[in-house]
Design brief:
261 residues; mainly alpha; 6 helices
């Protein structure tokens, strides 16, 4: 059915969408022949812009269909609905194909870091959206969902391992902090003990010096007494030591000498 007989706006929008689908098909065919990674990336950006524009036009087509739905017979409305669903399906096929190319492009960029790019997409990439069946689209979508789930699981595992490493690191840091605290306390105790020992050494030194002075004085006194005793024994008539207690001659002897009979 010619859409221009229903609505000129619908016919114009349908023509624009058809042109975009043709450009997308040619663009993906061109992308298959490009080997340079940077050029592939630019080509994908251009195709992505075209798909955004196509999505906008499909929404505009849907709004126009709803506006004239009351004026059309059920058969025409059914045909327009199927036309819109066909547009959505074809656009989704290009979106899926774009995601496949994007994944393959990212793998090619990481080829130097890993063993090589992921295999399995080369055969899929050759399929054009216009020739892909519903089953192929569903398989492609399921495969992409599986890959996404696997990537999420890997991310969860990395996060889990990171948390474990962080926990172990925190425990080690805590143990080291406690050990450093004990070392500081022990150093403070050692410093206090050294200071106390220094004070005791000074006190003992002063005490020893005092004891030496006392001993020296006692030694001098003993030597003086011994010297006096020796002098008295040697010269008992020495008057200089006569009056020293214990060394003077007895009183009877003195009377005998002073009063003889």
């Amino acid at each position: 059915m010619d859409l221009s007989s229903i609505s000129d706006d619908l016919a114009e929008i349908n023509g624009q969408i058809t042109d975009i689908f043709r450009a997308l098909s040619n663009g993906f065919q061109k992308l298959e022949k490009i080997k340079d990674v940077n050029r592939q990336s630019r080509q994908l950006e251009e195709l992505t812009d075209k798909m955004r524009e196509c999505k906008r036009l499909i929404k505009e087509f849907d709004r126009e269909v709803k506006d004239i739905e009351g004026r059309n017979d059920p058969e025409t409305n059914k045909m327009l609905s199927e036309k819109k669903q066909s547009m959505v399906k074809e656009l989704n096929s290009y979106v899926a194909l774009k995601k496949q190319h994007q994944t393959n492009l990212e793998n090619n960029k990481r080829v130097d870091l890993f063993d090589g790019p992921n295999e399995g997409f080369a055969e899929d990439n050759v399929l054009l959206a216009s020739s892909m069946t519903n089953q192929q689209l569903m398989d492609s979508g399921n495969r992409m969902m599986d890959e996404t789930d696997q990537a999420i699981e890997r991310s969860k595992q990395v996060v889990h391992e990171t948390i474990n490493v962080g926990t172990e690191t925190a425990a080690v840091l805590k143990a080291q902090t406690e050990q450093m605290s004990r070392i500081v306390n022990e150093l403070d105790s050692i410093h206090f003990s050294i200071k106390k020992a220094s004070q005791l050494v000074r006190e003992i030194g002063r005490q020893v010096a005092t004891d030496k002075c006392i001993m020296a004085m006692l030694f001098l006194i003993v030597v003086g007494v011994i010297a006096i005793i020796i002098v008295k024994l040697v010269n008992p008539n020495n008057k200089d030591i006569r009056d020293i207690p214990g060394l003077a001659p007895p009183a009877m002897a003195r009377r005998l000498l002073s009063n003889p009979r």
